[in-house]
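INTERNAL AUDIT FORM
Audit reference: QA-55
Scope: verify that the stored structure record matches its stored sequence.
Auditor: D.O.
Record contents follow.
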Amino acid sequence: MPEGGSGSDDEYRSVVFDESFVRAARITELSADERLGGHVPRAIRHKFGLGALASLPRQAVTLLLLVVLAFGAAVYFGVTAPQHEAARGGGTQLTAQLTALTAPQAPPAADPNNPFGTLPATAGYADGSAGLGLPVPTTGTTHFSQTQVAAALDTVRRYLEASELTASVLVQGETAQVRQLLAPAEQSQFDAATAAPADDQHHAVTGWMVRFDPMKVALASNTVKVAGSVSFTELDPGTLEITGDHTLVYALRPAGAPGAGPVSLYTVRREVRFDVDHNDVAYAQLRLVDSVEQAGPSPCGAAQAEYLQPQAFGAAGAPAASPGAVNPADHAHPAWQSCAVLASPKG
């Protein structure tokens, strides 16, 4: 037969004979009628519609399928692994410390019409977020761009405003505004703290936010006086560390008291440290790692894991042991100490 075959072979190019097929074929002698009738079944096996794959050896097709399955598995686990890591918590949790500052003498009542009038002008207090002292980044860090740093600082601003300055959080028991800014890795700890507050350094609600018992305390003014600053640094190639150190002054009155009732000032010094990674920046979330507070006037023995407990209006506190008087406006000393005496703020 000439090389390349004749045109009469075209009709057989759609069939494939292989050894297994030949061995499995049943050979039957045809009768005279069958041979004359022309209705002879053709012992052929048609190709499946695999296109170019049909010409490949079985081993090659099997290997190709294994490669496709392996690639699909790698993509699946690569996509889902960060979600599983977040569900496990990633090892991130808040550690909180609170120092109660007591007033041996009954603190003087503030003027209901001008409750912050006695604050020293030189202390640098401003109204609300204007006193947060957020930096304006002019450059990025080694592994975080200027845009990423600015976005992380804006998320911190929103967290500080929600957790320290918002009336619904301060005296109405609201928690969702604070929770929604936390990374998923910390939300389970936050939920455990709000469900069952405990003074164990990890499950105090007052570590996450400033809040007062709405059955006991009301705001005499929605304005909060704030003085302090925020700073940032690159902790490692994947983490931006942001630190805030603020003194906050609240004007409070007893819950249910008339508008002309007694008003007193309550001061909180709050040092907080946040860790933010590239994923946190993208999703406008953060992880609160440390919270250290001084708060008063508060009785030294009061449980303050759920709410901060202002000293009873017009009452004097019990004497406090060392380290003695502490001025919450003095940022030159560490915030965490044992129960101490609330010193008068100085300019």
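Auditor finding: record pair retrieved intact. The longest helix spans residues 58-88.
Action required: none
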